[in-house]
Write a structure and sequence with these properties.
Number of helices of chain B: 4
CATH architecture of chain B: 3-Layer(aba) Sandwich
CATH class of chain B: Alpha Beta
Mean pLDDT of chain B: 93
Low-confidence stretches of chain B: 190-195
Largest sheet of chain B: 10 strands, mixed
Oligomer: heterodimer
Number of helices of chain A: 6
Structural class of chain B: alpha/beta
Mean pLDDT of chain A: 96
Distance between the termini of chain A: 25 Å
Largest sheet of chain A: 8 strands, mixed
Strand content of chain A: 25-35%
Radius of gyration of chain A: 18 Å
Number of domains of chain B: 1
CATH class of chain A: Alpha Beta
Number of strands of chain A: 11
Order of helices and strands of chain A: HEHEHEHEHEEEEEHEE
Number of strands of chain B: 13
CATH architecture of chain A: 3-Layer(aba) Sandwich
Structural class of chain A: alpha/beta
Distance between the termini of chain B: 25 Å
Chain lengths: 223, 238
């Protein structure tokens, strides 16, 4: 019987190795899979590249991972927030690399990776320093920059409900990057608040079809 | 009249003034800071639909503290509510909406705006300070009308309305209107797509009482002209 549930968060991360690129859902704290992110600390993996909208605030989540020295590079749109002191200090002392990407470009690059596309031409950042070094092309009289796909070795996603096939629903604005990240990684691990029986989710309301999901862990399981 | 006698609007009054120009049916994104205050002056009788880039259309006011939901936040990461008819969507659809020209107005803060409509609002020249761009470039490029709401001068009195921006650009030639504590201005010659934009000037549509071209020129580096029918910029006490 197909059942994508795993025992705990560490089991959901099996195979996550040094140098991996990890996509982490969330906008602020909404949609961040805190259990999965914390479980990385129980592995040995280092030199990680983290792609996420923000770079962690306070002491938990991505901030804890950064503080533990596990992250070499951050790809995000807005690393600096109230409470992002862990990232700020690493950045100011040159101990972390930052690739800054406009928010819509960040998700569209992952959409390309997930949709089997080789990139896209975007008008966003044309004429700014974020377009430096990128191919610029004029199409129908408008200038665009070439943006390339962004794929993950792992995607760690926070969701509301899952069934054993891995069909997902999300909670309000905690949906954010979850659906696109679920398409764009080799291994997609999802931390959900609630596990439901197959057939319970309204097929019209499934946001991420199970085909995109590899491993499901219920928040708090195994802890 | 001397410059010091001129009374400018406060931040809430600037926000109020912006709100007067929004139309029912407009889909509007409000940036962080001063622009967020605009929501307070769109009365419940209006149907201006607020979009938040983290996947909300039909944003409502902040809930009572007990009803705040950590999964229902705005772009500033503060708790909000959803109006009847509102909905949620993922980031790709949100930026399809933004970049694809489906938003009518973005009200943004700015560090500087140039006379050709160039916008600088994402990074200063402080090297050790991590830059953050968020959705600013997407909004600036994709939204039909870009309005800037900001103080006319920096805290130490330097003009924010420049011949050319000194700070790195968010997007060239996109700003169409500027609402400041001293004036409402249209950008004439801006809003050209791609590349650098030549020329341009500000047209002063409204100025606070007592503010004439001579004082305006002291606080404004950008080229400007007062409209023939320039009106008085006034707002209720807020």
């Amino acid at each position: 019987m197909l059942d994508k549930r795993v025992a705990d968060c560490v089991a959901a991360l099996q195979g996550l190795e040094d140098g991996a690129t990890v996509l982490v859902s969330g906008f602020g704290d909404a949609g961040v899979p805190f259990g999965l992110v914390a479980a990385i600390l129980e592995l040995e993996a280092r030199d990680l590249t983290i792609a996420s909208n923000n770079a962690g605030t306070g002491e938990r989540g991505l901030a804890a991972l950064l503080a533990a020295g596990r992250v070499r590079r951050v790809i995000c749109s807005y690393p600096r927030s109230r409470g992002s002191h862990v990232f700020d200090e690493l950045y100011q002392t040159g101990r972390i690399e930052l690739e800054l990407v406009p928010q819509g470009t960040l998700c569209e690059r992952m959409r390309c990776a997930g949709a089997g596309l080789g990139g896209f031409y975007s008008p966003v950042s044309v004429g700014t320093e974020l377009a430096n070094g990128k191919e610029v092309r004029e199409i129908d009289g408008r200038s665009y920059v070439l943006e390339t796909p962004l794929a993950g070795d792992f995607a760690l996603i926070g969701a509301r409900q899952a069934d054993r096939w891995g069909n997902l629903t999300y909670g309000k604005s905690a949906r954010n990057f979850g659906p696109v990240m679920a398409t764009a990684a080799q291994v997609v691990a999802v931390e959900v608040r609630e596990f439901v029986e197959l057939g319970t989710l309204d097929p019209e309301c499934v946001v991420t079809p199970g085909a995109f999901v590899d491993r499901v862990v219920v928040a708090g399981a195994g802890s | 009249m001397t410059g010091t006698a001129i009374q400018g609007l406060n931040r809430r009054q600037i926000a109020w003034r912006v709100a007067q120009d929004l139309r029912d049916g407009d889909i509007v994104n409000l940036g962080i800071g001063l622009p967020t205050l605009v929501a307070d002056y769109i009365g419940p009788e209006r149907e201006v639909i607020l979009q938040s880039e983290n996947g909300i259309l039909g944003l409502g006011p902040a809930p009572a503290e007990a009803e705040a939901d950590p999964e229902l936040i705005n772009a500033t990461k503060h708790p909000v509510s959803l109006l009847p008819g509102g909905c949620y969507f993922d980031h790709c659809l949100s930026f399809t909406m933004i970049r694809g020209g489906h938003l009518d107005v973005a009200v943004m803060g700015a560090l500087e705006v140039a006379e050709n409509g160039d916008l600088a609002n994402w990074r200063t020249d402080e090297p050790s300070y991590a830059p953050g761009v968020g959705g600013a470039m997407d909004l600036a490029v994709g939204t039909k009308r870009i309005w800037v709401a900001m103080e006319h001068r920096t805290r130490d009195g330097r003009p924010r309305l420049r011949r050319r921006c000194g700070y790195p650009l968010t997007a060239p030639g996109v700003v169409q209107r500027v609402y400041s504590d001293l004036a409402v201005m249209a950008v004439d010659g801006g809003a050209v797509e791609g590349g650098a934009v030549d020329g341009g000037r500000l047209v002063v549509l409204e100025a606070v009482p007592g503010l004439g071209p001579e004082d305006f020129a002291r606080w404004t580096e950008a080229a400007f002209v007062f409209a023939d029918d320039c009106r008085a910029l006034t707002a209720p006490v807020l």
